[in-house]
Amino acid sequence: MDQFNRLPGIGPKTSERFIFYLLRLPKTELDTFADSIRNLKENILICQTCFSYDERSPCPRCSDPKRDRSLLCVVAESHDIIPIEKTEMFHGMYHVLGGTVNHLEGIGPEHLRTRELVRRIDANGISEVILALNPDLEGETTSMVLSRLLKEKPVRVTRLAQGLPTGSNIEYADQMTLAHALQDRKEV
Ligand SMILES: [Zn+2]
Predict the structure, then answer these.
(1) CATH, residue 149
(2) Which residues pair with 46 in a beta bridge?
(3) Distance 184 CA to ligand 1 centre (A)
(4) Residues 35 and 81 both lie in one domain
(5) Same domain for 23 and 81?
(6) Distance 13 CA to ligand 1 centre (A)
């Protein structure tokens, strides 16, 4: 239970359910489960092109000839790629920064993969960089730092439009969300 409790988003109740589930499994299935965890670090590596976690480097996305190499989507973490891929709207390449700028915790742009980003832009014929970072303080700061860093580069720098989430109510929207929704308004 202690081990499960350490996982993000898992409380004691869920841990307990996990334990009872695992106890009911046949031993062979439990062994497969244990082996997957044991081999995690050996089987998963970091793609040396986009820096996402994968079983191969370059990862299937970086080695897919059908993807548009002129578009580069910058995300903070490897798992941010999944929801973007699920939209099936983006067919370009990715770049995982490995975090966001956080002045309070002493994380500056030099601690992220910004040098690698600049190197990719200098080398690859990229025409547009899309900043897909969270609309929170760290994400905003990182977007600002990156757009400043890329100012002199011959690339278009864009960011995700941030509007009101579907089903939300203007009355309860926070100031930042509403300000962005106004800024990124579209012709109807
Ligand atoms: Zn990759």
Answers:
(1) 3.40.1360.10
(2) 53
(3) 30
(4) no
(5) no
(6) 37
Q: How many domains is the chain partitioned into structurally?
A: 2
Say how far apart CA 60 and CA 79 lie, in whole Å. 15
pLDDT band at 156 (very low <50, low <70, confident <90, very high): very high
Write phi, then psi, for 153 (nearest 5 degrees): -85, 150
Q: Which residues are close to ligand 1, an ion, with C-beta < 5 A?
A: 47, 49-50, 59, 62
- Determine which of 52-56, 74-78, 162-166 has the lowest per-residue pLDDT on average: 162-166
Kindly tell me the burial class for residue 57, based on how many C-beta atoms sit within 10 Å of its own C-beta (0-12, 13-18, 19 or more): middle
CA of 75 to the centre of ligand 1 (A): 12
pTM, 2 dp: 0.80
85-139 pLDDT, tens digit per residue, is 988 889 999 999 999 999 899 999 999 999 999 999 998 789 999 999 988 889 9
The range of the structural domain enclosing residue 89 comes to 66-161+172-183
